[in-house]
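Sequence in, structure out. Go.
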Amino acid sequence: MAKREHIVVGLDVGTTKICAIVGEVSGGALPGERPHVRIIGIGTHPSRGLRKGVVVNVESTIESIKKAVEEAELMAGVEINSVYTGIAGSHIKGFNSRGVIAIKNREVTAADVQRVVEAAKAVAIPMDREILHVLPRGFAVDDQEGIKDPIGMFGTRLEVEVHIITGAVTSAQNIVRSINRAGLEVVDLILQPLASSEAVLTPEERELGVAMIDIGGGTTDLATIVDNSVWHTAVLGIGGNHVTNDIAVGLRTPAYEAEKIKIRYGCASTSMVRDNETIEVPSMGGRPARVLSRQLLSEIIEPRAEEIFSLVAQDLRKMGYDERVAAGVVITGGTSILDGMVELAERVMDLPVRRGAPTDVGGLVDIVNSPMYATGVGLILYGAKSREPLRSQRSANGMMQRVVRRMKDWAQEFF
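Output:
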């Protein structure tokens, strides 16, 4: 296949599906210039080797990755050699930290910024965990707070507040190893809710304060963003697969049929379903199919969806951020497509809620304009902003060495 420059590939390794999305990037070379992304290829395949966002079967994961990537290559007409990939799972933990240093020459330099972030990172982390992201929330020079970029300012003391995200070393290694064995290099590992936020949130929401909930198959990911900075992240070990299992048990139907029923007829709010609506439910063991009320299906889905939003609301209240999200809540991910999810979320969380889908991209917009592609498109946008699109298809071993080095040297990792 022919190669193209300016290609960035996002690989969403999820519990339900593996999705490879190819984007062609233009612009973004100048400071402050926003890169433009045109989607030129998409490949998806059912995920067979993950549970709750964590690899449990390497061989099945490799096979699913290969098939998704081959489909994306065929559609885009390019050869995929390296990818930006997401990481999730209940092993992900986020916390805030603060660092303080003295400014050497009275004027803040890039080296000072790096030193103060390193100071904020000087926290005790268990040996089995690694730092995935260090995200500055804001700087302070002497008594002046709320500074986003302190370089060039004068003062004697520089402070920073950062949000640090850590994950289990073994979980990260298993994802990287699976992608490696599928013949691909990993440019970088990105926390999935951070990637999704790049695709679905507006600048106004990020500035005013917003909670983004990415409801996937195995996990529900939360990112709270205020003043254009990440203040809080969390991963809950509950997602759309739990809804599917509830349907399979409640309606006594095979799991794969329960998934089809959920997608086709599912509604998370019983008040939105008419009493006379019916659905046909396949039985097990060769028994004939049954005709049941759609209201019954909704009564099975609603409690589990309500549990998801209740857990998110509880987490926001516990951290004290429930009053900081003035722009409300944005839900995304494949499970958010279900009818009634927005209405139920508004009732449970007592906040304005909207459903988020990828925006500000060109090309195959009609295909990717769905919440289920939020993470994949967000990975491309994240990669485009990192100003490494030219290298993403030409790296041989350099990027993988960087990831491996991060595994071995987690305490000194810096972005």
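Check: The domain at 1-91+167-202+359-415 is CATH 3.30.420.40 (Nucleotidyltransferase; domain 5). The chain has three domains: 1-91+167-202+359-415, 93-166, 204-357.
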